[in-house]
Amino acid sequence: MESPRARRALLCAAVASAVALGGTAAGTAYVKARAQPGVRAVSSAVPPSASASVPGSGEAGVEPVARPTVDREALLAEAMAEVPVGDGAEVSVAVLDLGSGESASYGDGVFDTASIVKVDILAALLLQAQDAGRELTATEQSYATAMIEHSDNDSASALWRTIGRAEGLDAANERFGLTGTEGGDGMLWGLSQTTAADQLALLRQVFGADSELSAASRSYLQGLMGQVAVGQRWGVSAAGDGAAWALKNGWLPRTATGLWDINSIGRVTVDGRDFLVAVLSDGNATKEKGVSLVEAAARAAVSVFTREASASATASATVG
């Protein structure tokens, strides 16, 4: 027969066991209830920073998760696959996220510049003026304003002569880091040849801090590109927020074929983020179809970066 002391000891042991089991069961139910689908539950007993299993706990530690590398080129190719391109037309696009320095490009063809070369002409003039230690003359400034804001061809021809035509443009572009651009013959500045990658490099000279152009020269050129005539505010601006853009467009009907070269280069802002975008196209049946193609390509290029941010924001809101 058990003594009263022995019975009390057995009773205490039974109560302690029940409490321990109850606590474990409740804790397991709590973790399962809070776990999100597809996310492994982590016991609150294990610090989130642990990188190894806690002895005797039966719980695996949390390993640091490396952020996956994003293949921007592949994403841009996928986005461009959704852009309708007319029969016989070709398009190339390049984009740079100024904040992160990441870029992507689609297509590597060579295109006529048409009037986007006017940005290059003014950049070359500003570089030459810097080298000479002088400011632009009043006449040069007048030509520059008309050339960029209104795409005036006579002003472009005057400054083309001032910089030394193709020779002067090519010399400046060598310093700007453009490797696939060549000035047009004689006075045919609109038939200069370029690539989307080169136009992106030119935009970096205009809008980036690491530039051959001084801060004053960059600010001057940016200001003119932000005030183009109302009828010319199409192109890459379609990818931006409202009036947060600075651009230059080019359009040229080819006499031999009747088809159109339609180009657009510039900076756009989306949700506070700045992007440089260059879109080149040729073989367009009409100017309107070319503009539509260029704008669709610009939106596709910027979406390579903004779509990821939007998805992350949605995921955070869902988890929260």
What would you say this structure looks like, in words?
The longest helix has 33 residues, at 287-319. Helix content is 46%, strand content 15%. The chain has 320 residues and is of the alpha+beta class. The chain has a 5-stranded antiparallel beta sheet, sandwiched between helices. A two-stranded antiparallel ribbon has the order 3-4. The radius of gyration is 31 Å and the shape is globular. It starts with a helix and ends with a helix.
Spatial order of strands in the largest sheet: 2-1-7-6-5
Largest sheet: 5 strands, antiparallel
Q: How many alpha or pi helices?
A: 9
Helix/strand order: HHEEEHHHHEHHEEEH
The average pLDDT value, as a whole number, equals 83
Sheet-strand content, in percent, reads: 15-25%
Unreliable stretches: 1-6, 8-61, 310-320
- How many β-strand stretches? 7
- The rounded distance between the terminal residues' Cα atoms is 61 Å
Structural class: alpha+beta
Rg, nearest Å: 31 Å
Global outline: globular
Residues in helix, %: 40-55%
